[in-house]
Specification:
It contains two helices and three strands; from the N terminus they run βααββ. With 71 residues, it is α+β, with helices and mostly antiparallel strands.
Length: 71
C-alpha cells in the first residue's frame, strides 16, 4: 500500500482514507503529500481535535507516503 498512518488512535484508518478520498492500494504522488496532510488535519479539527498535527514523510523504500499524526 502506498499510504500509511502513524500515531493514529482516535479515528479508524478507513475513516482517514475516506476523508482523503483514497482507497486501499491507490496511488499517491509525492507532490500531493502536503495537501493530503492538510486535508487530514482539517478532518481531525472537524472532529474536535483542534491541536492536531499531521506531518507527511516519504519513505524512499517502496515510495510510501507516511502521515504522522499527533492527536
Amino acid at each position: 500500500d502506498a499510504l500509511a498512518f502513524e500515531g493514529r488512535a482516535a479515528l479508524e484508518e478507513e475513516e482517514l482514507r475516506e476523508a482523503l478520498g483514497l482507497t486501499r492500494g491507490g496511488k499517491v504522488l509525492e507532490e500531493d503529500a502536503p495537501r493530503l496532510a492538510e486535508r487530514l488535519a482539517e478532518h481531525y479539527r472537524e472532529k474536535g481535535y483542534a491541536w492536531v498535527e499531521v506531518t507527511p514523510r516519504i519513505e524512499a523504500r517502496g515510495s510510501k507516503l507516511v502521515l504522522s499524526i499527533f492527536e
